[in-house]
Amino acid sequence: MTDAKTSEHEKSMRRVRRFYQISAQREWERLEHPTQGALEFAINKAWIQKFLPESGARILDIGGGPGRYSIWLAAQGYRVTLADLSPDLLAIAREKASEGGVELEDVVEVNAVDLSQFAEDSFDAILCLGPMYHLLEESDREAVAGEVFRVLKPVGHAFVAFLNHLSALRAVVNQDIPFFTPYTFDIVKHWHHDHVMDFPVAGIFSPAWVVHPRDVPPLMERHGFRTVELVSSQSVAGDVQGHLALFAERQPELYRWVIDELVKLANDPTIIGSAWHLLYIGRKP
Asked: 76 and 171 in one domain?
């Protein structure tokens, strides 16, 4: 890596750490917030559960942040290693695991592009639900895919999250989003054409890479994965999460049925493009 490229890479990592230092508590709360992450969390958990090994297996949650998924898995008897770039998020994870009476096998500060502290074929399953969209350099994303494949045991499954490039045009017509400024047109064009989301308002999100759904399987398959599923983490309901929250209060039994149906639809090829978040599920042969 050249000095200039190294400097840019380190700058990017500092921005990610800084963002999560500011928003650490918000990140813990996001996956239970009815309009921000509760639907994503429910759908991801349901699809991950389909392919998990038996209880007691070793799982790596790389980029697992404040530990929502790690704690959920550890509560089921899995031996979970939570790894993340942000010490602030890991501090929350330790606190929340202790509060919940859940024991994580390990909590370590790690950059997903370099998992050299873990031996080849170390884990029965791997979650990578944050790192990919924080990596603006293609070489870094390729490195993460390769490292996840290396430390995953044969026949194990990897669960990898991506942000959907196709959501840019949907976002621009949403007048509730907090980044409308005189520069919005340039922001959206950059998002749509260059696959980079970079908000001008501090604290919304760190700069992020977004991908067309059709390009996700080839990225992972280049490193040896066999594609099992590509899932929309919001199914067909990404734009009506506020209504779903009200529905949960007013007709809870019917709400549970709707969520079950949304889970079933989440891998339908005709609705993948409507996702805000994509969940790739791949198997190591």
From this structure: no
Q: Using N-to-C axis directions, what is the helix angle for 252-265 and 38-51, rounded to 10°? A: 60
Lowest mean pLDDT among 11-20, 65-74, 212-221: 11-20
Q: Are residues 200 and 239 in the same domain?
A: no
In a shared domain, residues 66 and 199: no
Q: What's the pTM value of the predicted model, to 2 decimals?
A: 0.88
Are 231 and 90 contained in the same domain?
yes
Q: Per-residue pLDDT tens for 73-94?
A: 999 999 999 999 889 899 999 9
SS3 assignment, position 166: helix
- Strand segments, DSSP code E, in 140-211 are 152-163, 196-197, 208-209
Structural domain range at position 248: 3-163+211-283
Q: Are residues 155 and 72 in the same domain?
A: yes
* CA distances in angstroms from 101 to 71, 96, 144, 212, listed in the order given: 10, 9, 31, 40
SS (H, E, C) 36-79: CCHHHHHHHHHHHHHHCCCCCCEEEEECCCCCHHHHHHHCCCCE
CA distance linking residue 185 with residue 276, whole number of Å: 20
The answer to whether residues 144 and 87 belong to one domain is: yes
CA distance 263 to 257: 10
CA gap 22, 9 in Å, rounded:
20
CA distance 20 to 23: 5
Asked if 37 and 170 sit in the same domain, the reply is no
